[in-house]
Each structure stands twice: as C-alpha cells, then as structure tokens.
Amino acid sequence: MSDTEPADETADVLDELFATIKQRQEELPEDSYTASLFTHEKGENEVLEKLGEESTELILAAKDDDLEELQYESADFVYHLLVLFAMKGLDVDDLREELESRF
Ligand SMILES: N=c1c2ncn([C@@H]3O[C@H](COP(=O)(O)OP(=O)(O)OP(=O)(O)O)[C@@H](O)[C@H]3O)c2ncn1[C@@H]1O[C@H](COP(=O)(O)O)[C@@H](O)[C@H]1O
C-alpha cells in the first residue's frame, strides 16, 4: 500500500475533502450527494445511518480479508464522518488535534 508516502499527503487529502464538504454545505448545489445529506428529510439521521451501514460493510470486508473492499468502505466511512463533523460544527482539525493529543 502507501506506507512510503509522507504523513502530510494524508493531511492534505483530508483538508481538501473537508473544505469541499463545507463548500457543499454552504452552497447546496442540486446535483451534489454531499449537499443532499445536509438537506435530507431525515436530518442528521441519514448520515448516522450511513455511518452504521459503512461500518458494518468495513467490518464484513475485514472479516473476509478483502483488503480492497476494506480500503473502499473505510474511505466511505471517513467521508461520512467528516460530513457529520461539518453538521455538528466540528472541524477536521478537531479530529487531528484529538489524535495528536494521544501521541
Ligand atoms: N468522498 C466522497 C464520497 N464517498 C462516498 N460517497 C457517496 O456516498 C454514497 C455511499 O452510499 P452507499 O454506500 O449507499 O452507496 P454505494 O457505494 O453505491 O453502495 P455500497 O456498494 O457501498 O453498498 C455514494 O453515493 C457515494 O457516491 C461520496 N460522495 C462524495 N465524496 C467527496 O465529496 C466531494 C463532493 O461530491 P458531491 O457530493 O458530488 O458534491 C467529491 O468530490 C468527493 O471528494
């Protein structure tokens, strides 16, 4: 996999993804799945349900030793987690800070 890449690469991807999510939250374009999560009739329950589904899918992939699927479902999970952060007024830096505080 990508264990030779510098840690900053990951940080940049998360920052870029979170900035895109915040932009969708502000502008609510009609053709955006992300925007649809912010306007969903179920409210935040939609993204919470998605997190439940994605975590089940990544657990099943791990149990099957399907690493490609594990990687795919984990990315789905992280994306939905960042949408939840935006909904709650948290920032990706809050996640980074919490992880760093555990070093
Ligand atoms: N990272 C993601 C991302 N990850 C997952 N998803 C969507 O999340 C949904 C996941 O729901 P499901 O698991 O039910 O869908 P599925 O993958 O078809 O089903 P499974 O095979 O997983 O069961 C799909 O519609 C995916 O397209 C994402 N949608 C958007 N992004 C990012 O958000 C940005 C903005 O995209 P828009 O939402 O199109 O504005 C994009 O440029 C991406 O960077």
From TrEMBL:
Q: Main site of residence?
A: cytoplasm
Top-rank taxon: Archaea
InterPro entries in the cross-refs: HisE (IPR008179), PRib-ATP_PPHydrolase-like (IPR021130)
Q: Which SUPFAM superfamilies match?
A: all-alpha NTP pyrophosphatases
Pfam families given in the database record: PRA-PH
**One annotated Gene Ontology cellular component of this protein:** cytoplasm
Provide the GO biological process annotations: L-histidine biosynthetic process
Q: Where in the cell is it found?
A: Cytoplasm
Q: Report which reactions are catalysed by this protein.
A: 1-(5-phospho-beta-D-ribosyl)-ATP + H2O = 1-(5-phospho-beta-D-ribosyl)-5'-AMP + diphosphate + H(+)
Q: According to its UniProt record, in which pathway does this protein act?
A: Amino-acid biosynthesis; L-histidine biosynthesis; L-histidine from 5-phospho-alpha-D-ribose 1-diphosphate: step 2/9
User: What are the entry keywords?
Assistant: Amino-acid biosynthesis, ATP-binding, Cytoplasm, Histidine biosynthesis, Hydrolase, Nucleotide-binding
Please name the GO terms that the record assigns under molecular function: ATP binding; phosphoribosyl-ATP diphosphatase activity
Q: What is its EC number?
A: 3.6.1.31
Would you identify the family this protein belongs to, as annotated?
A: Belongs to the PRA-PH family.
Which NCBIfam families does the UniProt entry name for this protein? histidine_hisI
**This protein's name:** Phosphoribosyl-ATP pyrophosphatase
Source organism of the structure: Halohasta litchfieldiae
Gene name, per UniProt, is hisE
